[in-house]
Design a protein that fits this description.
Length: about 170
């Protein structure tokens, strides 16, 4: 049983994030064109923001990986660098948070997969729980910040059509 669990969590730690990306991309493809534009705008701001914040936080807080501290061999190979935050978890939780804005059902599925990615990385011995929690908080905080900024301004003020009108001024 332990070998089967190891195989499942190895898959989760190494490859499950790809399923999140595929589901998100497939969902994106079936969206109407105006919604696709909004999704691309939010993703174009959120993903770099999450990356920048994670780099800053990673420089401020160093957390050696569990296999370095515990002197054991992890289930998957990983370099012995800073484990905080988890980049796999940052990506999947940012995607889940962004899609949750538009579709709670698909967003919830992606959040479940994101939590499985995080748990798998902890089980595999390449991250501590704080690395996963920190990644989730960075992603949620960044997406929430962008979402509420967008909502409070109506739309992003720097996106205009040729007539210098906000993109969806007809909707108001």
């Amino acid at each position: 049983m332990n070998n089967l669990a190891d195989l499942v969590f190895i898959f989760g730690a190494k490859y499950l994030y790809l399923l999140v990306i595929v589901i998100a991309f497939a969902w994106f493809l079936i969206q109407p064109k105006p919604r696709k534009k909004e999704i691309l705008i939010i993703a174009g701001i959120c993903l770099p923001l999450v990356f920048v914040i994670s780099k800053i936080v990673g420089y401020l807080y160093y957390n050696p990986r569990p296999f370095v501290v515990g002197h054991f061999k992890p289930l998957i190979y990983h370099s012995a660098d800073n484990g905080f935050p988890s980049h796999h978890e940052l990506l999947v939780s940012a995607i889940a948070a962004m899609i949750f804005i538009f579709s709670r059902r698909i967003g919830l599925v992606l959040w479940i997969l994101a939590l499985l990615v995080g748990f798998s990385r902890v089980y595999a011995g390449v991250h501590h729980l704080i690395d996963i929690a920190g990644s989730i908080l960075i992603s949620i905080g960044s997406v929430t910040l962008v979402y509420f900024f967008r909502k409070s301004r109506g739309r992003f003020c720097f996106i205009y059509k040729k007539q210098n009108r906000p993109l969806d001024s007809k909707e108001k």
